[in-house]
Amino acid sequence: MGSSKMEGSSIPALRRDPYEVLCVSKDSSDQEIKTAYRKLALKYHPDKNASNPEASEHFKEVAYSYNILSDPEKRRQYDMSGFEALDADGMDMEVDLSNLGTVNTMFAALFSKLGVPIKTTISANVLEEALNGTVTIRPLPIGTSCSAKVEKQNAHFFGVTISEEQAAAGIVVRATSAAQSKFKLLYFEQDANGGYGLALQEDSEKTGKVTSAGMYFLHFQVYRMDSTVNALAMAKDPDAAFFKKLEGLQPCEVSELKAGTHIFAVYGDNFFKPATYTIEALCAKTYEDTTSKLKDIESQILGKRNELRQFETEYRKALARFQEVTNRYTQEKQAVDELMKQRDTIHSSFTVARSVVSVTSGGSGHFSNGSSSSKTLGDDPRVECPAEEGTPESKDKSSKKKWFNLNLKGSDKKAT
Fold first, then answer.
1. Entry pTM
2. 174 and 115: one domain?
3. Quick check: 141 pLDDT over 90?
């Protein structure tokens, strides 16, 4: 929601004082800073300096400096603590892809397909034509829509004229693409020389089956969702994808429009093909309930963002504690398993396993418990001793002794 400022920036190789880079003083107004940025950005834009690598670095430095000084909070942090405060807080990243060759463009497109958000700058030709006032402006009356197709790195400009009553009620300008084209919605301010300077931009985001971008001038602070904020942190840490999600809410720089004609544009941000879109301008007077709900839900989201910041600290501590006890659980389990294994080994040493080694012809045998030594029958407690004569056992055995030889002896006598 809302709209972003003109441009973000990637961090330059060497960082200099942003006031020095933009050639402005520390007490310069926002408008003076913006004017200085526009001039330097056009001067060093890669589109106009394709054969000058130093210009590209200057452009990056200018955009980075403006990113700091155009944001009141970042400017305050820098004035108090320098770049260290910004490093701790994190900076938006932007990649200039408007002048890339085919291979690099395909590489960037692949990243977009993989879900890695990449910001792109707007073509210098579009910015310069707007600043010179040489662009064609199509009328877009309030309550109407217009559908068209814009070539990549080109823009269609629209003039939205609003009355005092409509300005007081609030204005909404939205663009959607049923083809899910990638585009930017731009807002230009009237420049002193009669041209138009880029003031706000909103990158299209996928919502359901369409891509869309909107600017809401409703007399209260409206926010936009910048998916590139903390994108690297979110890619490295799955938990950050949740906790940092609401950090992408960025306040819109402009919350209301005055009566008159205002210039908007749809910029084709697709890497390979034109962007199809529908743009519409609405007066919020007929959407009072919706406006009220928006104000309420954004207030709730901001409150939830503050809650998540506190909860993340608790969660991280709890997660660290959980990992600690989980590691201990694994260690303790291994220790217990090892002790039980040693216990089983000790228990098994009390069990004597024996096997027959040899049996003599006289009926005596030697038994082994697994060692090289042997024992006699008398040494084995499981071998019965012979019964004494006169005992019941001996009589019983005598009666049964050699019963199978009786007939044999009789037959021997007969034979003799």
1. 0.60
2. no
3. yes
